[in-house]
Amino acid sequence: MRGFWATYLRELLLLKERFFRVLLSFSINPLLFILAFGLGLGKDITISGRSYLEFLVPGLVAGSSMLQAFAINVEINVARFYLKVFEEFQSSPISPAGYVLGEVFSGITRAFISTLLILTIAHIVGDIDLKIDPLFFLITFLNAFIFASLGVASAMTIKTHADQTLITNFIITPMMFLGGTFFPIENLPEFLQPLIKFLPLTIVAQSLRELSWGYTINYEPIFILLILSVIAYMIAIYTVKRAKD
Amino acid sequence: MSEIALEVRNLTKIYSNTPALKGISFTVKKGELFSLLGPNGAGKTTTLRIITSLTKASGGTVLVFGKSLNEDEKIVKRRIGFVPQHINLDMELTVRENLLIHGLLYGMPLREIKKRTEELLEIAELKERGNSKVKELSGGLKRRLLIIRALMHSPALLLLDEPTVGLDPHIRRKIWGLIKQIQNSGTTILLTTHYMDEAELLSDRVAFIISGEIIAQDSPLNFIKKLGEYALDIFTDTGISTHYFKNKEDAEKALQTHTTYSNHVTLRKVTLEDIFVKLTERHL
Ligand SMILES: Nc1ncnc2c1ncn2[C@@H]1O[C@H](COP(=O)(O)OP(=O)(O)O)[C@@H](O)[C@H]1O
Ligand SMILES: [Mg+2]
What we know:
The structure holds two protein chains of two kinds. By secondary structure, chain A is an all-alpha fold.
């Protein structure tokens, strides 16, 4: 795992450098969603006997932690194409596994910052308190692990920054909107449901919702997320090894 | 065998059908400063990028202190320090943070990183700027930081890719001093440059590289001795014709003869540039 600390510490130092900007930019989207959909649009809506806000917030945690974890690809692109610091890493005696793990943990860190911000905003603005237990954080952790790994993999595979925007627009954004974040997936057309049901984000959103409403979940979703984490991590390592000219 | 730091044999590199290296060979002895001297596009950076595992060779072998690049990649990487042509520092981080990350990449213990950082900041006269962000440094200071970053893990072989390109004369001199100091502390150096004066001033041996081929290699002094140490430039209507002389008396005699016919004659010492011009007119 040589290279983990160098990679993770570098990202933490960069994060520290822009900490307040990061807090602001991480807060604005959830705040808007909570105000516009949770309070504005969803004021009189209840789903499964809960207020829409209580439905929305766990979904937002799932969606935002996915987005923020995946967004490490932006930092990696800057390091690779603009600063070329990535070459300093490539020519050093580190292992790809250690490098990927360092980047993934920086993604997880960002995801947790985002999660805590959402829960705080929901508490202050929406006046709701969800039940948060260790399993809630474990699932958020795995969610971030998967998408940070995919963030690394996409950053290693693309050739230009424009490709990156394409991937985000065609994969991440649709998932954000359709993956059980904003509405129950049962409302979608029948033929889409099998596909949507097995998206990692759907699994995460539903599990977080059940946990935060005080229900227990079985171990199946955790098991699936674990397997997806391992697969995503392996893919990321493979793409790092291949990123040579 | 143990006297050789770097051995490059028949190295080739083909970038999508265009050959960048056409089978170059050279060896760098321990403690030596060896230069690859050649114009832009000659293949200098490609050679260094292969040695640092940033680029895959198409053919040939590279041995670093007897270890093969492919078989002992991590061991080889640990013994090499690489200073790239383009400054690739973390601009948003401080000078010390840049050095810290490098130390961690090479598995150095924290205590050692601290000690080495202060040592190197001292050498590069960067101590007062240790906590400045890199983006606030001048070009010359960034270049010096780039060099000492590569020295953090005390590599036995330092690769310098055009270390003074684009710097003003005073700063170039400072960098030259630093490079010589590094060599004197026992580090073997492979340097690339397209500046003839730089290669002549710094190198123990020089290889001329053009279009992916090494056309000659020797010490600057031997090159110059072979051609003759004195050059007489005679300016004519069609250009300059230069004559070379092994001893000063002959050169001065010729100078007198030519001065009677023409006013535009100068006598000077031969430089590597003369060697380059001679070699390439034969090769073109
Ligand atoms: N990544 C690359 N893809 C294609 N061609 C390249 C690449 N890098 C270098 N070249 C070509 O290889 C040749 C040698 O380049 P380089 O090693 O950078 O030369 P130098 O460092 O001596 O200026 C040049 O013709 C250059 O255009
Ligand atoms: Mg070059």
